């Protein structure tokens, strides 16, 4: 589990007032990727707001994590659900107030967040919660404040496309190919090769599990090049690489999730480091040994009995 010491988006808005387009886009693209990923699993968050996005580092906008799935629900694509009202007043979609809605409510919320990033205040407001919700239902907002003077028509257009009634609201795929969002897409170096995949197949299962865990624990600065390669290859920003995106995947790898990709690309210079080997061993072991019982505690069912030195020898 990552430690996030950089505060949340709301903290940054209070600190800076508002972001320029470059900063807002850096944050927004990460929000989009998060939403695309969890909605691909048929999950709707229902409480997206600046306070639910944390920065891992204080001075790094490109280190955002989404939190708080306490109001999340599973949804069926194309089905309108009769759910209770949920969310935070400023960011809640108008259809949520009617009690019948679907995953598109999250798209509305990210549109409100984008608006806030660029000007520092919400598009819908009032003296109290009732007035705020009335404003949301009317759906009228503007770009009249001085903060909008130097904001491009392109991003204003995107906001208008998102803050629409449910049936007219742009979907995530359309948002991802919007010209303003596409400005962020940069060419990355593709590090994964067929040799990496073949090498992985030769690894002991315990080594594979250890590397998968290590991939989740490494600082972003240590895997930045690998991460950029993944993002460049993942054209639909789903967080999962398909066979269409990696043509040398075989039946063993029908697809690759983000941390799987990271673990496959890790080089010995990283995972042979003593502190990381101890970190992996600590995760896999109980009382100084990796055993069948210790693996079961992390839901791995495999007969095993290794001490630390035997574990290190696998690498």
From TrEMBL:
Question: Can you tell which superkingdom this protein's organism belongs to?
Answer: Eukaryota
Which GO molecular function entries does the Swiss-Prot or TrEMBL record give?
A: ATP binding; protein serine/threonine kinase activity
Checking Pfam families in the record gives: Pkinase
Cross-referenced SMART domains: S_TKc (SM00220)
Per UniProt, residues of the Protein kinase domain are 1-181
The UniProt keyword set, sorted, is: ATP-binding, Kinase, Nucleotide-binding, Serine/threonine-protein kinase, Transferase
Q: What is this protein called?
A: Protein kinase domain-containing protein
According to its UniProt entry, this protein's organism is: Paramecium sonneborni
């Amino acid at each position: 589990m990552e430690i996030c010491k950089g505060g949340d988006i709301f903290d940054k808005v209070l600190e800076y007032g508002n972001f320029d387009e470059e900063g807002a886009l850096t944050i927004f693209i990460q929000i989009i990727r998060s939403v695309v990923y969890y909605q691909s699993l048929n999950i709707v968050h229902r409480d997206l707001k600046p306070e639910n996005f944390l920065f891992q580092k204080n001075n790094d906008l490109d280190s955002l994590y989404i939190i708080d799935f306490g109001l999340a629900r599973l949804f069926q694509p194309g089905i309108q659900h009769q759910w209770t009202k949920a969310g935070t007043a400023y960011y809640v979609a108008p259809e949520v107030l009617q009690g019948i809605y679907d995953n598109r409510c999250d798209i509305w919320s990210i549109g409100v967040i984008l608006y806030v990033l660029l000007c520092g205040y919400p598009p819908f407001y009032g003296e109290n919660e009732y007035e705020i919700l009335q404003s949301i239902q009317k759906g009228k907002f503007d770009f009249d404040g001085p903060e909008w003077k130097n904001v491009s028509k392109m991003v204003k257009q995107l906001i208008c496309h998102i803050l629409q009634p449910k049936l007219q609201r742009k979907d995530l795929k359309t948002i991802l190919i919007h010209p303003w969002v596409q400005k962020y897409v940069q060419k990355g170096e593709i590090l994964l090769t067929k040799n990496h995949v073949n090498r992985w197949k030769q690894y002991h299962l315990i080594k594979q599990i250890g590397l998968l865990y290590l991939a989740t624990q490494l600082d972003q600065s240590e895997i930045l090049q690998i991460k950029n390669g993944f993002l460049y290859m993942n054209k639909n920003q789903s967080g999962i690489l398909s066979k269409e995106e990696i043509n040398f995947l075989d039946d063993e790898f029908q697809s690759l999730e983000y941390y799987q990709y990271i673990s496959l690309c890790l080089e010995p210079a990283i995972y042979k480091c003593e502190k990381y080997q101890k970190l992996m061993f600590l995760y896999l072991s109980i009382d100084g040994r990796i055993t069948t019982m210790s693996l079961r505690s992390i839901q791995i069912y495999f007969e095993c009995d290794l001490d630390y030195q035997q574990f290190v020898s696998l690498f």
